[in-house]
Amino acid sequence: MPKDQEIEKELKKIKDEVLACEKCPLARYRRENGFCPVIGKGSHSAKIMFVGEAPGANEAKTGHPFCGAAGKILDELLESARLKREEVYICNILKDRPPQNRNPESQEIKACTPYLEKQIEVIKPKAICALGNFAAAFLMEKYGLKDEIKGISKIHGKTFKIGAITLIPLYHPAVAVYNANMKNILKQDFQFLKDFSD
Ligand code: URA
User: Which of 69, 83, 121, 125 could serve as 78's disulfide partner, Cβ 3.0–4.6 Å?
Assistant: First the structure.
């Protein structure tokens, strides 16, 4: 089977698994409210993967990641780094929206992140950008960097090389929705991402 079809098949499998998942109460919350799971979107051969926290209201309505206010900021940041949404892959650590957009709980992260881990295995990005504290902490622990975990204000924009993957913790774009200063910091951190795009 050609490689792209193989990847397509594997990603479809992940989507089917999420749709059938009963591992945490967020799936029931999704069904009761007629929400969609937000699996991920973008190039299946992306060199750069962005991992956010969890879908919000707009995302749960549409099934697309980062399509609300934080998504607008993300689009601006991508454009400032000369990157297109279609060439990167965007997903989250949680595939379902937590009620009232509360923080992810540790058992939800534990239940849901095997799907993210499979997405990473299938897409094989060169760079993974962890957006915000939750994504950064999960991915740093996964890649054996537990001792380096600090608040995102201390580690944003740093690069951690783990074999073929470079992990880059970044501020979550939502911090810039009402704060132009934070947007400038994010723009600076995004500038070198283009280096990973080919
Ligand atoms: N915030 C996130 O972390 N992910 C989304 O998809 C939207 C907002």
Answer: 83
